[in-house]
C-alpha cells in the first residue's frame, strides 16, 4: 500500500513523534510511505519538507492581524492560506490513502485537503481539526454548534473568526470523505458530536511507542527515595499541563522520601517555596535519551487538566514506570487504576498527592512496574496497532470501490 503522511514535524513534538513512529512501522511492514512535513528534523529520505516562502509571508501578516484584533489567550490555529506545493507533491506521489496528523496553521488548510485525490484520514492529536481554532476547548462546547463567542479569542460575538473557520472547514470538507481517527475514546466522542465531525466517520485508534527503545531499566533502581518525573513538550508553563498542581501537591508529601525530576529549561516559580530536592533534565527529542529519563524514575506524574492520548504516559508505561494522573481525556485508556498506575478523580493538589502516595507505597508490593510494561505489550504494541490502521485503510478503500461500482450499475 502507498501511504502519504502529512505532519508539521516528523520526529519532534508529541504528534510529530506519533506520526513518525507510524511511518517507521509502516515501512517495516513493507508499505511504501512518504511523509510530507513543514519542518524536517531527521535525515530520513522518506520525509519531504515543504514550506513555501510566500505562504510563510502571508501567514506572518495574518497572524499579526489576528493577534491584534483578538489577542488570543491560548494557542489558536486557523487555516487561511493555501499550500499548492503540498497538494501537488502529495498527488504526484499517487498514494492509496492520505493520513493527516497535527498541521496547526502552517502546513495546510481545508481547501488543500479538498484537492487531495486519495481518501483522507485525519488523526486527532488535539481538538483543532473540528473546532474554530482552539486546540483544547476546556469547558466551552461551541464546537458542537459551529463555534462563535470564542473564549480563546476573548470574543462576545456569535459570528466571530472562530465561526468563520468552522464554515470554511465545513465547506471544504463537505465534498470529501474524511475519516477522523481519535487516538483516545474521549476525543473520538468529542469529534463525533461536533458540527464538523458529525458529517464524517469517527474511529478510535491509538498511537504507540517503540517498545525496543522504551523498555524497563536493565539495572535495578537503588536510591532509597522515590524519584518522581514530570515531562511535557511545553515544559512547566502551560496551564493545561497542570505543573502548578503538581508543585502544590508537594506540600502534602515528605521531602525526605521523594525527589522531583523535571524535564525543562526553567524552574517553575511554585517550586521556590518547597523544600523538595529538584533535578532539572535537559529537554530532548531523541527517544533514547527520553527513555533514559523514564528509566531513572520510579514513577511519572501527569497532572494535565486536559489530555488526549499522552505520549508521556505511553512511554512511561512502556519503560515499566507506573503513572499517577487525573482521570481526564484519554488517560483512562492507558492507565488501569491501581494496576499500572493511579487515576485521580478530583482535580486538585491534595487528591493528586494521595495518588502519588499510593503509587509510591505499591511500586514493589503490587507489581506495578511489571503491569505497566505488560499493559503496553498486550494492548499497544507497534505491530498490532499498525495492523489496525492498515485494516481501516483497506476497509475504507474496499467500501469506496463497492460504492463506485454500485453507482456505476445505476
Which key features would you list for this structure?
single chain; six-stranded parallel β-sheet; Rossmann fold; 410 residues; 37% helix; alpha/beta; seven-stranded parallel β-sheet; 13 strands; disordered C terminus
Describe the structure.
The protein is of the alpha/beta class and about 400 residues long. The protein has 2 domains: about 1-210 and about 380-410, Glycogen Phosphorylase B (Rossmann fold), CATH 3.40.50.2000; about 225-380, 3-Layer(aba) Sandwich (Rossmann fold), CATH 3.40.50.2000. The chain contains 13 helices and 13 strands. The strands form 2 sheets. The protein has a 7-stranded parallel β-sheet with strand order 3-2-1-4-5-6-7, with helices on both faces. Strands 10-9-8-11-12-13 form a 6-stranded parallel β-sheet, with helices on both faces. The longest helix is centred in the C-terminal third of the chain and has 28 residues, at about 380-410. About 45% of the residues are buried. Residues about 405-410 have low confidence and may be disordered.
